[in-house]
Give the backbone structure.
Amino acid sequence: MSRSILVTVPATTANIGPGFDCLGAALTLYNHFKFTPLDQAAGTVTITVQGKEAERVVTDSSNLAYKAFAHYFRSRELVVPAVAIAIDLDLPLARGLGSSSTAIVGGLLGANGLCDEPLNQAALAELAIAIEGHPDNVVPALVGGCQLAVAGEDGSATLCPIPWHSDVVPVVAIPDFELSTAEARRVLPATYSRTDAIFNTAHLGLLLRGLESGNGDWLRVALADRIHQPYRQTLIPGYAAVAEGAIAAGAYGLVISGAGPTLLALAPATAAPAVAEGMTTAWQREGQSVTALALALETRGGRLETVA
């Protein structure tokens, strides 16, 4: 293990309306992780961080990328080697764009790369899900594209790639405030009615067909949800205004990205720039600083290269 491994991991958007805790997609924003072996005692780690909110990232053994790196070796009953990790962040923290999943996937891919990649993608996905606890962010971060993860009776996950039409553009509006996943889960009810369960089942089916076909009429209906969004909207100041601004500018609809507070609009390609502007203007009128970006689906997922 004499060379360095550079890992690039995409942002993700999870849930996507009715796809709560099972549907996610990789986007064209990235975090980067460089792993360099050290000639020091096993378990030694040095971590440097640059980029967005770098000062907030811990640089000891509790760093999530390192914890995933170490978990890889321990799961294979191997000694955790000494390593230097250099992290370059393009994603803000705690905004609903899968920053924690990039760290988990980055750590696992870095470890696998230093070991000459003995584990395949499926095995790495199992490790990532075990660390994160649910698959909707880590799977697309690792695999790329839009992915549906279905839990089996035995707890295993079956992964199903979902076709995404090239004319369906994801537009994200990232506000300058945070929303913790724990808080976003706290507001959810413990039980749901049969009516709400049927509603979400039908809408998820329609969403999958809408993403595949690019059918705007289907997408306008399909993004509705009764499981998480009605409750989490109350935690995001300006949600209604941003949704109105996105739809007025030509979006099919707007949903919460992951646990939020980033908001995701799906729009036809011709309307995407106007949708980004409409979301920005609406949130600024609510007194919030925001960055809106028209992105694309990242089909490659996490990837690595050997560097000098």
In short: The domain at 168-294 is CATH 3.30.70.890 (Alpha-Beta Plaits).
